[in-house]
Specification:
5 strands; disordered N terminus; alpha+beta; globular
Length: 155
């Protein structure tokens, strides 16, 4: 089953940890499903949204593999999604302040990393989602992507 979005041609999917400590942006459902097929380890509950802020409900197979996402009936809540993404970025900032060693591989200083954190304060949620790193399999060059993995579900 293929998910149909009403967000025009923008089929990106935002995954946010239920505790707002982690997020990922996927280009579309096939990108998300191929990642799941590669066994990405998620350490907690997650929620899915489209770029308008509409909740997407997971559909599982009989053996609990993610098969698709169905658009929720409730209206999009872009401000709520923006607040959740802002909470994720605040968590990452706290984490890298207390674990600056996670930045060493990316050859970026703590000050540079904090200055580069996206500011999610505009009126355009799809644009703001575009400031977050895409999920790229085996990405080793994007410090924010790597820091999110390190900080995800961390106290």
């Amino acid at each position: 089953m293929i998910m149909t979005l009403t967000a025009g041609d923008d089929r990106r999917i935002v995954l946010i940890a239920a505790d707002d400590t982690f997020c990922h942006v996927y280009q579309d459902l096939s990108d998300l499903l191929s990642t799941a097929d590669h066994g990405e380890k998620l350490a907690g509950a997650v929620e899915f949204f489209d770029v308008t802020g509409r909740r997407l409900h997971p559909v599982f197979s009989a053996d609990w593999r993610l098969e698709s996402l169905d658009a929720g009936a409730a209206p999009a809540q872009p401000e709520a999604v923006r607040q959740r993404l802002t909470a994720v970025l605040a968590h990452v900032a706290r984490y890298v302040r207390s674990h600056p060693d996670v930045l060493a591989r990316s050859r970026i200083t703590l000050e540079q990393a904090l200055a580069q954190l996206p500011r999610l304060d505009g009126p355009d949620l799809p644009h703001e989602i575009g400031t977050l790193p895409d999920h790229l399999e085996h990405d080793t060059g994007n410090w924010l992507h790597n820091a999110m993995h390190a900080a995800g579900w961390a106290d």
